[in-house]
Structures are given as C-alpha cells and as structure tokens.
C-alpha cells in the first residue's frame, strides 16, 4: 500500500506489520477452521504462552498504527468491515472453544508483545475462561411500539383553541399510556430473563436512528446463559416478548460472551449511571 | 479435507430475531456489534492502542455513526433511556 514504508520494513526496525488480537482461549484441540479471514483480509494464527493462546493476525501498520487507526475509526465503512471481520474470527472460534473475546483493535507490535500480555494477565485470563466456559451471551432489546393511530380519517379541524388543546392532551395521554405499558413489560421481561441468566449486563439505550429500529429503546441488555440452557432461554424470550402490541422485542445471539469478558469490577464501573432498577443479579 | 472440523464455514454466529418477524433471521446490526466490540471485551495490557480503546473509541464510534445518519441527530441518548 505504502511504498515509503516498505523501505523501513524489517525484523527489528519499523515493522510494517502489527499483530491484531481477537481473543484469548485455552489451548485449542483442533486447528482454526480453514478459510477464516480476519481484519484486513489476514489469516489468523495462534500465539502460545502460559498455557493460553491468543488468536492473532498480521495487519499493516499503515492501517492499524495508532494514528491511522484513529482516522479509520471515524470511517463508518471501515469500522463496520473491521468489526465484522473481528466478529467472524471470534465466531469461528466458538465452534472450537469458548473464547474470551477482546475489544476491537487490540494491537501489538509483534508476537513477543502478545506473549508478554498473556504472561502478565495469565491469572485473570484463566479465571475468566473458567467463568465463561460453556456459556454464551444473548442480547435482548425492547422497543416501545407506536400505538395504532387513533382515528384513521383526519379529524375535522378544531373549531376552537380549547378543542385543539383537548385533542392534543388526549393524544399525549394515549402515547404516555402505551409507553408506560411498554416500560412495564420491559421490566417484567428483564426480571424474568435475569433470573434465568448467570449474569446480566445492561447497555445504554440505543438511539432509534442509529439502530434503525423505530420506537424508544427501553431495554438493551445482555444475558450470560449456559449453552445447554439456551433453548430454554430463547423460548422464554419468545413467550414473554411476542404478541404484545406495545413492544417490539429483538433477540440477538448466541454471541461469544463479550459483555462478560472484562473482570467484574470493570463491568460494575462501566454500568454506573445506566441502570437504576433493582435486580439481585447485577455484577457481584 | 483431513481437518476434523465438519462444521461448515461460516459457523453459526449470532443472528437477530425480531418479535415482529420471528422467522426472518438477520445479520446482527452494526450498532449491536459495536456495543460489544467497543464497549466490552477483554482488554489486554500493553497494547499499542490501549489509549484509543480506553478513552476515544466510544466517542469516535458515536461520531462516525452520527455523521452517517445525518447532522440532525442531536445526541445518541436523546429519546432513549434505560429502564
């Protein structure tokens, strides 16, 4: 890509390639599936240290160095391509093991740097891998659904200011009732799902314009569930969420347990301010 | 074809199912992916991009998203709040 860079490319000089890390896993018993491509169309491989493995690939420094990365992240097309490629590698790993997925754009200068990170975090990674073994994550979002318009035919123009205000009030009240009903349903759903999950993480609500889903986002949460109880969990979501006209429920999964990968303390901190409800399954 | 993996690629990744159209399974939305990839996931020490990941990523991604849907969007949290 960059002619100038190849001139300074070398083993010990300014490497033109960096290491992008996708996940940390226990030693894999099978090779990575053929055909999996990582970010920047790179081929993932594994780096071993301390009884752990990092799944990494070589990426150009011209794109993943700190400065170019900063610029790229503002390019939505690049961000999406990279996020989906990261996800594809993590997905491929979930066939073989329960990976500890890393945050997007975790980059090291070389394999030795990756090994040092594994060595330094060995206790934490092992604890996390033990905690997450056999678990998957399900995402559930609840959106308020707009009530059907009260009158199909346009009402005759208000004849007085008072009449106009009365109608406005009626509209507002009806909207508020629907929203309240939807919020209640969201709370009920969350409580029921939290009781069935081992851990819960509540994300900030998504802007409908960003998510492309109409209606206020009332719940945006992730649930950690044993893989073999997933079916039960999904059935529960369907039972509780379907058929109610005041809400639209969206289920995503099964995800590798991204939302539960960081140590508990870090997650507790990041939840501050996002959650005011009472549930006893909050991060402990 | 000596690999023991009989799993087809791509393997089952997360899909999105909507209560409105339960039979239509979709690719997960970018916004759900970014919730996870930017906001969570384990963080390794000593990475070159740790500073970006810790401080700027969320802001950057929101700016990217917002500029993509038009300048009229006032704030990512406008009109939405958790339970």
TrEMBL record, chain A:
<dbReference type="Pfam" id="PF06386">
    <property type="entry name" value="GvpL_GvpF"/>
</dbReference>
<keyword id="KW-0304">Gas vesicle</keyword>
<dbReference type="InterPro" id="IPR009430">
    <property type="entry name" value="GvpL/GvpF"/>
</dbReference>
<protein>
    <submittedName>
        <fullName>GvpL/GvpF family gas vesicle protein</fullName>
    </submittedName>
</protein>
<comment type="similarity">
    <text>Belongs to the gas vesicle GvpF/GvpL family.</text>
</comment>
TrEMBL record, chain B:
<dbReference type="InterPro" id="IPR050530">
    <property type="entry name" value="GvpA"/>
</dbReference>
<keyword id="KW-0304">Gas vesicle</keyword>
<protein>
    <submittedName>
        <fullName>Gas vesicle protein</fullName>
    </submittedName>
</protein>
<comment type="similarity">
    <text>Belongs to the gas vesicle GvpA family.</text>
</comment>
<dbReference type="InterPro" id="IPR000638">
    <property type="entry name" value="Gas-vesicle_GvpA-like"/>
</dbReference>
<feature type="region of interest" description="Disordered">
    <location>
        <begin position="1"/>
        <end position="20"/>
    </location>
</feature>
<dbReference type="Pfam" id="PF00741">
    <property type="entry name" value="Gas_vesicle"/>
</dbReference>
């Amino acid at each position: 890509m960059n002619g100038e860079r190849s001139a300074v490319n070398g083993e010990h000089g300014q490497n033109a390639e960096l290491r992008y890390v996708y996940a940390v896993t226990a030693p894999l018993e099978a090779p990575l599936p053929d055909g999996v491509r990582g970010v920047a169309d790179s081929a993932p491989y594994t780096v071993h240290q301390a009884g752990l493995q990092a799944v990494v690939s070589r990426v150009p420094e011209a794109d993943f160095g700190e400065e170019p990365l900063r610029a790229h992240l503002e390019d939505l097309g690049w961000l999406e391509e990279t996020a989906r490629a990261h996800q594809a590698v993590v997905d491929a790993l979930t066939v073989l093991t329960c990976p500890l997925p890393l945050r997007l754009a975790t980059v090291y200068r070389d394999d030795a740097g990756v090994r040092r990170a594994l060595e330094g975090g060995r206790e934490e990674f092992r604890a996390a891998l033990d905690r997450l073994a056999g678990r998957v994550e399900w995402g559930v979002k609840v959106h308020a659904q707009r009530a059907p318009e009260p009158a199909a035919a346009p009402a005759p123009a208000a004849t007085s200011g008072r009449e106009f205000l009365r109608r406005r009030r009626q509209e507002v009240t009806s909207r508020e009732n629907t929203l309240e009903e939807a919020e209640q349903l969201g709370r009920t759903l969350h409580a029921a799902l939290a009781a069935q999950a081992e851990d819960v993480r509540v994300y900030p609500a998504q802007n409908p314009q960003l998510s492309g889903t109409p209606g206020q986002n009332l719940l945006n949460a992730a649930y950690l569930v044993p893989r073999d109880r997933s079916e039960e969990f999904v059935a529960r979501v369907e039972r509780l969420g379907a058929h109610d006209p005041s809400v639209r429920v969206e289920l995503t999964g099964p995800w590798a347990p991204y939302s539960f990968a960081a140590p508990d303390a870090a997650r507790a901190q990041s939840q501050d301010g996002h959650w005011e409800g009472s549930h006893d399954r909050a991060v402990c | 074809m000596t690999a023991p993996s009989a799993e087809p690629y791509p393997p089952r990744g997360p899909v999105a199912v909507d209560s409105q159209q339960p039979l239509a399974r979709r690719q997960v939305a970018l916004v759900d992916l970014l919730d996870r990839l930017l906001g969570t996931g384990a963080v390794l020490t000593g990475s070159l991009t740790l500073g970006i990941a810790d401080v700027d990523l969320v802001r950057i991604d929101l700016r990217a998203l917002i500029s993509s849907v038009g300048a009229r969007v006032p704030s990512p949290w406008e009109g939405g709040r958790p339970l």
